[in-house]
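so ive been stuck on this for like two days lol. basically i have the seq below and the ligand is magnesium ion, smiles is in there too. i just want the complex predicted, nothing fancy, no docking runs or whatever. if the output looks off dont worry ill sanity check it later, just need somthing to start from for the group meeting slides
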Amino acid sequence: MKTIQEQKDNSLNYGKIISVRGSVVDIWFENNLPSIYTLLHSGKDKQIAVEVLTQLDDNTVRGISLNPTQGLARGMEVETDGKELTVPVGKEILGRMFDVFGNTIDHLPPLPEIERRNVHQKPPPLSARSVKSDIFETGIKAIDVLVPLERGGKAGLFGGAGVGKTVLLTEMIHNTVAQNKGISMFCGIGERCREGNELYNAMKKADLLKNMVMIFGQMNETPGARFRVGHVALTMAEYFRDDEHRDVLILIDNIFRFIQAGMEVSGLMGQMPSRLGYQPTMGTELSKLEERIANTNAGAITSIQAVYVPADDLTDPAAVHAFSHLSASIVLSRKKASEGLYPSIDMLQSNSKMATPGIIGEAHYNLAQKIRHTLAKYEDLKDIIAMLGMEQLSVEDRNVVNRARRLERFLTQPFFATEQFSGMKGKEVSLKDALDGCRRILSDEFKDLPESAFYMIGSVDEAREKVNTKTDTSNSKDTSKEDKNTSEAKPKDSTKENTDAAQNKTKDDNNNDQNKLKDAPKENSDEDQTKSKEITKVNTGTDQDKSNDTAKDNNNANQTKSKEITKVNGDADKNKSKASEDKKETVDT
Ligand SMILES: Nc1ncnc2c1ncn2[C@@H]1O[C@H](COP(=O)(O)OP(=O)(O)OP(=O)(O)O)[C@@H](O)[C@H]1O
Ligand SMILES: [Mg+2]
């Protein structure tokens, strides 16, 4: 005989569809109106799940469908067991890939019968939270030095379309998942299915799946599914934290799509939109999700979330709300991406609550502040440089610019995630090496090296190696270069090198040349810069006193003069600069 509880569990309640509008379904129940968040099933094979979101009157509820509503019709029967959305939890889910219903989607044998848990859970109470602050190293220089992440904290990668959020997130997965002793989870919300697939295969290949769980509600799915998939991931994460006492690293791409799905749901439900068309309940919805990402004495949930920033506008309500939940915000800038300075982190806009002397240590803190000051000063000087050129800067300012440009390049890094299309081998750099590099650059140890030497390297010592190998290869190619007229555009040289190399069809050569091609435009500008620097050096050698003497009032007149001169001289300047280089050499010797 069945117990009362079992009878209760199996008792079904039936209703009838009275309207279907897109994903929104209204259902009539004669009695026992289902409560909010109850899952209802309808359709021919009861394959369509609808979650109750509002109760319209004594007999009618309105819900949002988690599947496409194709095939639903008015009058169709709806059944419910009164339960909310549940997903499987347990050790068995490791290495598997799930959808919003907790169904496996990796074409492997189905899961055994295991515990299922409601996806709507409360965040842990304040008294249960732990407040330990530890650093979470990522092996990415710019992040570890300037925006250290918190173990058990929430970090956000903010950026507009195509500035490298997914690539950076993938790189972090690569660098951290292998060392992460706990569980890693990836939750794809409203992004490309292809990316999910690629990540799954990459993880499988690297044999990292065994400690990983993946959950996807990608852009092809209904707003209801995208709205709930984050909760699914957190429910699974909470199981590992609370029941198995393990640390969990959860990566989300992209939390903005969660907000966007909420906006769609809210619109479909007929709620009045709020600012910029967002749902009036955005703040509540986001905190319901974000607050569950918390550390307790049982374990920690560390999360790294990509946040799409609509129209690159960081004051967008979605971005602003997301900011307020995070302990570290990494802002990616389109300008940096367009200059090829990847990862395109805007060091001045990014910040981390960990970056305080008490947590990262006095020395690291001071160094990070110094880097920020240098970069900020360079940012201020950029306008002057653009209008008047480097020559008009004081010697001190010029030094700041040189340091800042070297730092900017040193903080780029070749990624494992981009090996295939950049042709450069990925590099992971320890915090110690990264700090050491920044310190040495700031103390002008590498003044003699061109800026390009710092571009896409790992630790700072590679800069010298890069210069040495470059001079070696350029020496071997010198014979062909020397006949060329120097006034010829340099990019031509690089294309020529390329065609030369194309004849030697070995793979290595091709790779090298790809790098060169990438470096070429930069090198040119760098070389030009160093040339102009040299001119100014030579000049300052003789004119420094003079220029110091000239009153500041005269500056404007001088500037316009020098501008005119540079205009008139045009190409001739190049030859001059060559000559001055020679001059400088003789002076040096
Ligand atoms: N570290 C990097 N090195 C080289 N190229 C990069 C790097 N990061 C990003 N890119 C380039 O930028 C492109 C877009 O990157 P990504 O897909 O990560 O952007 P996204 O911010 O996730 O965009 P979306 O908002 O569309 O999802 C990449 O395909 C790649 O060409
Ligand atoms: Mg992306």
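Residues 165-166, 191 surround magnesium ion (ligand 2) (CB under 6 Å). The chain has four domains: 10-84, 87-108+151-354, 361-476, 489-589.
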